[in-house]
Amino acid sequence: MAPTQHLPLPVRDLLGESPLWDAHEQALYWVDTSGRQVHRWWPAGDGTVRSWSTPQDVGSIALAGPGRLLLALSDGFATLDLAGGGLTTLATVRHPRPPMRLNDGRCDREGRFVCGSMVLHRRDPEGSLYRLEHDGRVTTLIDGGIAVSNAICFSPDGRTMYFADSLAGVIRAWDYAVDGRLSNARVFADTRALGSGPDGATVDAEGGVWVALVMVARLACFAPDGRLLRSLDLPVPYPTCPAFGGPSFETLFVTSIRDSGNVLKSDAPAAGALVELRGLGVRGLPETPYRSLP
User: Fold this and answer.
1) Catalytic center residues
2) Fold of 4-278
3) What distance in Å separates the CA atoms of residue 67 and residue 27, rounded to the nearest whole number?
4) Dihedral sign, Cα of residue 226, residue 228, residue 229, residue 235
5) Cα–Cα distance for residue pair 4/278, rounded to 1 Å
6) CA distance 214 to 287
7) Per-domain residue ranges for the chain?
8) Using CA atoms, how far apart are residues 174 and 212, in angstroms rounded to an integer?
9) Which strands, in side-by-side order, build the sheet including 228-233?
10) CA nearest 219: which of 173, 265, 256?
11) By C-alpha distance, which of 34, 20, 11, 18 is closest to 264?
12) pLDDT one-digit tens code per residue, 25-58
């Protein structure tokens, strides 16, 4: 039976990104990068959406303990206090030259936040891949050569990292050691044959890699060996990032774009909507929170 899809909310983001399920709250968080908003939807509660404003574009988020989120802002990392709305800066990133900002990010299984940067309004590969360590230091994992960082996710055992430069059109994989060292870089999947570079991605409990194909309004799933398993049409013109959630992690949520502020813009009624997919027959995994030292 085909999975069901619907748009559960009236919210239409400019640049929806980084959906994230909080299993403790049973709530979905995501961001509107260009709208400078963090959203929370509590479907099991009153069903309303609460939002927090951010002082810069926010590329991605992670859980960071009770009542807090970690934010990747344009030029650094901060925590958001959900009760009071205050921000605490943790670390800054110095980009080679403007305009640039931090983009896609996700915690590894040890609770360190891996996040990449991107160039804006140009295609120069001047972005890098960073990791926010437990002690707040920023380590550079890949120094330059990236235009648009995306598709960061980790295998269920945490020992494989996936990452893509969307403009290159290829998802790559690395062996990822417990201490965070990268080795054995290789091509995992080339999405150019599917008509789109890869955008955001997530991993299911069986190791399948689900990636948004932003330019063709589709969602693809690749096996751990890189074989294409599934490709699904989506009801939004520019899907950006998937995340599993719901009480049993059997629902897949996908964010989308209405106006990226760059080349992607749509007046379609569904543009910028959150998509909810059920009946995929697979489950996701809880996201690891960012763990800072006491």
Assistant:
1) 199
2) Neuraminidase (2.120.10)
3) 12
4) positive
5) 5
6) 23
7) 4-278
8) 20
9) 198-203, 209-213, 218-222, 228-233
10) 256
11) 34
12) 999 999 999 999 999 999 987 889 999 999 999 9
